[in-house]
Amino acid sequence: MIKECPNCKFPGNIPGANFCSNCGTPLINRDNFFSFMEFVEYTRLMRGNKLDCVQENDCVIIPCSWHAVGDFHEGLAWVEEDGKKGFIDVWGNIVIPCKWQTAEDFSEGLARVTDDRNEYFIDRNGNVVLESPEDYSFDFGGFHEGLAIIEDFGKYGFIDKRGNVVIPCKWNSATSFNDGVSSISNENGKYGCIDRSGRIVVPCIYDEEIVFSEGLGMTYLGDEICYIDRNGRKAIEIFCTGASIFAEGSASIEDQGFIDKNGDFVINDRWCCDWDNGFFEGLAATEEWGYIDHSGRTVIRNEWEICHPFKDGLAMVELHGKIGYIDHSGFQIIPCVWDSGKYFHEGLANVTLSGKTYCINKRGKILCNVRKS
What does residue 210 show for φ and ψ, rounded to 5 degrees? Predict the structure, then answer.
């Protein structure tokens, strides 16, 4: 156990705590953490194409399912029951009752929720810490880098966690802060960037939202895709049909390959596409070859119809319209049996089967309630 959070460096966590009291990050080894949770092999519960409860050793094993489930963030995920949303913990327990009309992921210890009267930010205990006043409303996205987006008659600005307006609502659009900047647009529909003080650091001259990653922002200017620095200087200009943001030092250019931060091609790959692409955890998914490393060498040959990037140690793959997951060696950890799925996040992933949503761990086991019969 540790006292200091590895994410936010908060030093005041109680010894033995599972999550950081400041940001919610798990404080213990994830593999050990999930080992004692109630997960059951899906094959024990499968009946036809459905998952049913079973009775074993004087216990009833009931697969946890919901109408809809969000990803786990800071140890909690929103779920929907009977048209209302609340939050579960990693054991599947409802820790914040399903009483909200909408709910978003937790970010920096707070989550945005709404009811039929107003919008709120709640903490991990479900307590309301901010309520939207009459002169503005909370926008989607939650808190990032200490600020959240607000909206006032179609104009956007930012508040801090005390509810103070720190950037006035004067922009036609705004994105959550990332890498110290937010992409905003003016009344002419042109995009630029501001810093956390509201100062314009990239002029509003671009045609699309600017997305920063690893110090460079990707956007469009006419027929060009541009990568710019935080001062608005163009670092790379390239003509192509699509591209990705930088990840692990490179960006994918559709139908061409991968470039470095100098704009030089380091991998030539005419099968490269920009959708959901780029390097993650040392590997990139390509349409034709499977997974390649930073040298362009194929390390996992494609045996699936669609390969997705690695996230949290596993990659989602598709075969015959079903979803499964592989590890970095290409071994099929979780067979392609699910109707749909999401990336792993904080050690768990959401999958669907026959219209129901379940949580699985990295061994493919389903989160269940186990009760004495």
Answer: -100, 125
- Here the tokens at position 118 are 């107003």
Q: Comparing C-alpha atoms, which of 364, 373, 352 is closest to residue 65? A: 352
Place of tokens 């592989």: 326
CA-nearest of 131, 219, 133 to 175 is: 219
Q: CA–CA separation, 360 vs 304, rounded Å? A: 21
Helix extents (H) in the chain: 30-35, 42-45
Largest CA distance in the chain: 68
In angstroms, rounded to a whole number, what is the distance separating the alpha carbons of residues 86 and 266? 46
For tokens 């929907």, name the residue: 80
End-to-end CA distance of the chain: 35
Q: Please give the structure tokens belonging to residue 25.
A: 């990050």
CB neighbour list of residue 283: distance below 8 Å, 6 or more residues apart: 291, 292, 293, 299, 300, 309, 310, 315, 328
Per-residue 3-state assignment (H helix, E strand, C coil) for 282-300: CEEEECCCEEECCCCCEEE
As to burial, measured by CB atoms within 10 angstroms (0-12 exposed, 13-18 middle, 19+ buried), residue 90 is: buried
Answer for the pair 5, 74: CB distance below 8 angstroms, yes or no: no
Q: Quote the CA–CA distance of 344 and 326 in Å, as a whole number.
A: 11
The three-state secondary structure class of 218 is strand
Per-residue model confidence as pLDDT tens digits over 102-120: 999 999 999 999 999 999 9
Extract the tokens encoding 194.
């501001």
Distant-in-sequence, close-in-space partners of 166: CB < 8 Å, separation ≥ 6: 147, 158, 159, 160, 196, 198
Q: Is the pTM of this model over 0.85?
A: no
Give per-residue pLDDT as tens, 319-354.
Answer: 999 999 999 999 999 999 999 999 999 889 999 999
Q: Give the number of other CB atoms < 10 A from CB of residue 194.
A: 21
Mean pLDDT of 142-165: 95
Question: Are the beta carbons of 316 and 323 closer than 8 angstroms?
Answer: yes
